[in-house]
Amino acid sequence: RRASSAVSSMQGGPDASGGPHTGTTIVAVAYDGGVVLGADSRVSTGAYVSNRASNKITNLCDNVFLCRSGSAAHTEAISDYVRFYTSQHVSETQQQPSVKSVASILYQMSYSNKGLMAAMIVAGYDPASGGKVFGSPIGGTLVEMPWAIEGSGSTYIWSYFDDEYKEGLSREETEELVLRGIAHAMARDGSSGGLIRLVTVDKDGATKRTVQGKDVPLILGDMPEPGTNAATVVW
Amino acid sequence: FFSLLLTSIMAGIGAGYDLYPTTFSPEGRLFQIEYAGKAADASGTAIGVRTVDGVVLGVEKLIRSKMLVKGSEKRIFTVAPHAGMALTGLLADGRQIVNSCRDEAQQYKRFYGQAIPGKMLNQRISSYIQYFTLHDSVRPFGSSVILASYDKSGPGLYMIEPSGVSYGYRAVAIGQEKQVAKTELENLDFTTITSREAVMEIAKIIYKIHDDVKDKEFELELSWVCAESNGKHEHIPEDLLAEANKVGKQNLEADQFGSDEEMEI
Fold first, then answer.
1. What is the ipTM of this complex?
2. Is A22 known to be catalytic?
């Protein structure tokens, strides 16, 4: 039922339950004036981390990005198609597409190809509607939401976002929210880890940021503060 | 073949190069397409005006028979919630254009999740109409259309002829009295005219250009897509239509009595 584990993917290892296991944490949150997208960077094949610094946030066009989780092959193929159709659309209309248009194109691909294992989030900014986030879970649903999370790590942070998200956050507050949310997921989910990549999209375009090593928020919980020994650092 | 050639030589202008749309004349003209244009103008005039807050379409529907049920022959169609189309010429051809226009708008909405911008719809329909000028096995449409739309970038007015050529306009007229109508339209101030005002102006122009001698009666059909209709294309309300007819008649009478010195009252 699972694709060959020899194929590099963003899945976690063979799962006892046999269900889909997408080893990633991806997040997107809209704020007034833009969106912040975030993702971890771990790609694992079984217990082996095949890529510890991957980029799971893909550019679809200047103002719209895609967070990918599930099969790396499937999501890369989908994003290539969406980028192609989007650029044709831009060519025809001679303007930046709305986030909704790009999300609709993604929906066509996802829904028409049910065999794919792709749980994605489309997020971006367009002047008419501002910052928009569209969740596209497995199966091809398309739903607009103020914030969206996907991937195996997301299970551990639903309550975090339920509690911490509010309307009216500033850009910095939203970035902090996304950063801490992913750090929480990385602390508990074995299939999420590495660095945290953030992309913020607003009217001036996209700003990318990479947060690694000691800059990733340390989620101690009830653990003691680490000493100077590097081995105790959790990342 | 020789007898065909003889017939067209007797007909004059085409002189053998006008048999198929796939044949250019020595001067580089496609006569069949030009003839299609003539067919497109052989019906009551249709007018479109782009205003500051929308677009208004009006058609002079010539009543061919007293037994026709009022309102049964429509010349203005809604092709998408935010777009409408007025036809002239061979109406059966025009209705095909309306159908394919509706399909295009639907498909775009399905694929991109949004209403098709007027500019895009115009491009698609023009390509569709042009396709029929390239083949031996089909003929060009004998119908010109006026496309009215209202999208995020505001009101849009386009006219597409049988050749597939189309432009954006502030005001346009097609049909048998289009030249006279165009002259009248040039008097309007497009920087300030509202949709309500345009309704009245179009009514006046159509009453004025209608030829009482050649064609007996006509019925006025008016539609709009504007701020007042909430961006939806629809026929204008009954009371406004009644008022437009009244204004049109009154203006015509005033003209007749007012301007001409030689006329005997």
1. 0.74
2. no
